[in-house]
Amino acid sequence: MTACSAGSITSSSQRLSVSAVSVVLFLAAIIGIADLVQAQVIPANLEGLLSRAIELEKSKDYAGAEAVYKEALVTSPDDPEILKRLGLVCQEQGKYDESTEVFQKILKRAPVYPGVNSLLAISYYGLNKFDKTIEASQKELTGNPKDKQARYYLALALSASGRLFEAIQQLEALLSENPQNLAVAYQLFVDYKAAAQKAGQRLAEMSPDSEFTHAMRAEVLADNERFDEAIMEFKEVCRKNPNFPGIHLAMGQVYWQRKDLEKSQQELQLALAEDPKQPLANYYLGDILVTNQEYSQAMPHLEITVSVYPELARAYWLLGKCYASTGEPQRALHVFEKALEQDPNYKEVHFQLHELHARLGNKEESQKHLQIFERLTREDQNKDKEHLQESLQKPNR
Q1: How many CB atoms within 10 Å of residue 223?
Q2: Based on the domain organization, do 57 and 85 belong to the same domain?
Q3: CA distance 230 to 239
Q4: Phi-psi category of residue 241: left, alpha or beta, with phi > 0 → left and psi -120 to 50 → alpha
Q5: How far apart are CA 102 and CA 88, in angstroms?
Q6: Cβ contacts of residue 336 below 8 Å, gap of 6+?
Q7: Could you tell me the maximum CA-CA distance found in the chain, to the nearest angstrom?
Q8: What Å distances lie between residue 229 and 221, 268, 351, CA to CA?
Q9: Within a domain: 268
Q10: What backbone torsions phi and psi does residue 129 show, to the nearest 5 degrees?
């Protein structure tokens, strides 16, 4: 676990230098100017130790750095920055009991020393002491509410304690501030999944044979691609409550995934009879109609979809095919470009643009999109070969 983000090595070194200079001035005031040169021997030695410890940290020799920091503490036993660095290198070695003891020594004298409660929380988390992790994180956040590290470990500890919805709140806030944080996004996925399972268990316990429980089971089965079983559960929902909200859309999706387009179309039309603007029902029905080359009928459904889900590249691709096939090339170009805004490597869109530009006499544009399509196709083929080789190299078990 890398938990050294609170305070850089360089800034710590600078603060240690200030601490050492303070020692020099204090000694000079007591023993007089005549003895100042002799007093400087101690801080100079301390500076050398700290420089060596920092170099050892940089080379990831944490055990070596630990030994040097302990040697430095003989000279300056209560220096909080030396103690903080010692706690960090102990953490890096997984010595959480020792790091906890060091951080507590700092906090005993300075209960809100910057960053130390956050580091203590990490050590407690490493020891599976989740209540103490929460307590230490909250103390850090009292003084520094924006501390991302403290908020992250607070979320982890809340999750490990079964307080999933509180954890999700923390993670959602962190992700909104930094949408590219993969660790937070992954933990959010894990917690949402656990929360859904917990809610499902509660529902099944409350009413094991209700239409809601059967609908939940159907959704789980569909997610696991057990489509026939999912359809049986959805039919049981309809038997118990023919007016169950969203049932026809749900069944239409499962039939679509199972490639049973005729039954999917029937269910989706029932869903649209209930709600003509339902975007997903319009999307799936539009897809089926394009597959059946019923382009004019598909267009209004796909137009509704992209108005609600402008990030859905495939809906733009389908709509572009409709426009291109019904003699509206400029509208087709526009929506194909919209698809590429969402996914620049959508190779099927590049192929459509190649054909469309060729029909319009735009040879240069047509050739450009053909080359992109061919490059993306080669890349996909190479990935398939790599996956095949990897699977062949795996030993049989």
Answers
A1: 9
A2: yes
A3: 14
A4: beta
A5: 9
A6: 316, 317, 320, 349, 352, 353, 356
A7: 100
A8: 7, 19, 38
A9: no
A10: -100, 80
Please report whether residue 383 resides in a domain: no
The CA distance from 48 to 40, in Å, is 12
Give kind and range of the element (H or E) at residue 374. Answer: helix 363-393
Q: What is the domain extent for residue 229? A: 208-257
CATH of the domain at 153: 1.25.40.10
Residue 46: predicted pLDDT: 86
Average pLDDT over residues 46-50: 89
Domain count, the chain: 3
Shared domain for 173 and 193, answered yes or no, is: yes
Q: Quote the pTM value.
A: 0.66
Cβ atoms of 126 and 94 within 8 Å: the answer is: yes
pLDDT at 19 over 60: no
In contact, 365 and 334? CB cutoff 8 Å: no
> Both tokens of residue 374?
């061919």
Q: How far is it, in rounded angstroms, from Cα 23 to Cα 359?
A: 83
Rounded Cα gap, residues 21 and 40, in angstroms: 9
Token pair of 280 as six digits: 């997903």
Two tokens, residue 276 = 């003509």
Cβ-proximal residues to 395 (8 Å cutoff; 6+ apart), any chain? none
Rounded to 5°, angle at Cα 160 from 154 and 166: 55
Give me 113's structure tokens: 């020393």
Name the token pair of 218.
């159907």
CB 120 within 8 A of CB 103: yes
Residue 212 lies in a domain: yes
pLDDT, tens digit, for every residue of 65-121?
999 999 999 989 999 999 999 999 999 999 999 999 999 999 999 999 999 999 999
CB of 17 closer than 8 Å to CB of 47: yes
Nearest to 65 by CA among 97, 95, 88, 94: 88
Last residue of a domain, one of 137, 172, 206: 206
Residues 6+ apart with CB under 8 A from 195: 164, 165, 168
Together in a domain, 168 and 214 = no
